[in-house]
Write a structure and sequence with these properties.
3 domains, single chain, mainly alpha
């Protein structure tokens, strides 16, 4: 099993990743969205990691402080699940009661700004548009024009799609071999 957050097909096109290695690894690709897009999973993950580290350290954690759980759920997790895992491990190590808490100072001075700043509607729409275009480019193997091209599937003119691809900085070459 291998995992990455890099665009390997783009790296192949740029000549910085070996195509033969990509095809050796790309047996059954699974795309998992980042933790910040799966806030509903955070409480279960917190409980799992808390139980795991409590057992490992011989501690008894019965509950998680509600304020801590609310903070953890709203935090954007730039370090993804490994950051969450490390925070919970640190919390369990330092915990001296059956109720787990989290020190928000661990997240730096910008944590409050990060937590309060949810993505704006334009940012969310841009993300969705990029995802839809990339999905159709993958289905059409990077082909934009023609009957089986992404533009036809999306019902937009080729020039419009090309413009959106450029604006959204999508590398359509990476879909040629998907």
């Amino acid at each position: 099993m291998a995992a990455t957050n890099r665009d390997l097909q783009g790296a192949i096109a740029d000549g910085i990743f070996r195509a033969d290695l990509f095809y050796r690894l790309n047996v059954f690709p699974i795309e998992v969205p980042p933790l910040r897009e799966r806030a509903e999973d955070i409480p279960s993950l917190v409980r799992h990691f808390a139980e795991h580290y409590a057992k490992k350290l011989g501690k008894r954690i019965l509950n998680i402080q509600p304020d801590a759980l609310e903070f953890l759920t709203s935090y954007p997790w730039p370090g993804n699940i490994r950051e969450l895992q490390n925070v919970i491990e640190r919390s369990v190590i330092l915990c001296d009661s059956p109720v787990l808490s989290v020190d928000e100072r661990w997240f730096g001075a910008d944590a409050d700004e990060l937590v309060c700043a949810s993505p704006s509607l334009p940012d969310q729409l841009t993300y969705q548009e990029k995802h839809i275009i990339e999905r159709e480019l993958a289905r059409s193997r990077g082909q934009v024009a023609g009957q089986i091209g992404a533009a036809a599937k999306l019902g937009v003119p080729v020039s419009t799609l090309e413009s959106r691809i450029k604006t959204l900085k999508i590398d359509k070459r990476r879909f040629k071999f998907s």
